[in-house]
Design a protein that fits this description.
β7 and β8 form a beta hairpin. α6 crosses α8. Helices cover about 35% and strands about 15% of the residues. The chain is an alpha/beta fold and about 240 residues long. It starts with a strand and ends in a 14-residue tail after the last helix. The protein has a single domain, classed as Aldolase class I (TIM Barrel). The protein has eight helices and eleven strands.
Length: about 240
Amino acid sequence: MINAIGLQGVGVERFAGEILPRLQKYQTAIFVNVCGSSDEEYIKVIDYLNGQKGICAFELNISCPNVNKDGLCPALDPRSTFSLVKMAKQASRLPIIAKLSPNVTDIVEIAKAAEEGGADGVSLINTILAMAVDVETRRPKLANILGGLSGPAIKPIALRMVYQVASAVKIPVIGLGGIMTGADALEFLIVGAKAVEVGTANFIDPAATAKIAAEIEDFCRNKGLQRLSDLIGTLKA
């Protein structure tokens, strides 16, 4: 899937007043993805949500490629990553997870910058910058021209980057990118991810995440694994 929806949202006040109370009814941890059009806006969102109940952590979305036509974002530069993560960490009462971009030459350098800035964890990868063209009209299929590619096609790249980052930083790594099945998720855990996220699969099947969790449970039962943590980082070189 290639999307270019930008950073759409109802705004932090409406989120806190209408959406968060609905999420709090479920017996699960709530991680809030924080975004902004400037460093200051990120901090304002965090400041507002600091006082809300039920939130476990903030995932700092510094890697969305759909904010402008060039696909630029703070996570493309280690200095920008370090600066924004440090500001967010100082402002936040909760753990900060930096969501990283694959559209870089060295994602390990960016991950280390996030770690040095105080991030409690990193999540990767966000979408890969891509485009599509209508051959009949010779125009881009996306109004933004460029968009973010997600889904199964990017999993091998995501897996490689998660492996590289997990081998280089001391903070937890959350793996994402093309996870469609329990086996996909297990691959990320084996290369070092402490947890995974599922995105595009939910567009195909809203029950995808529950099915993936069940498949992971079946795998552990069949292999006699008492704890999922026994599988993390067990890649055999």
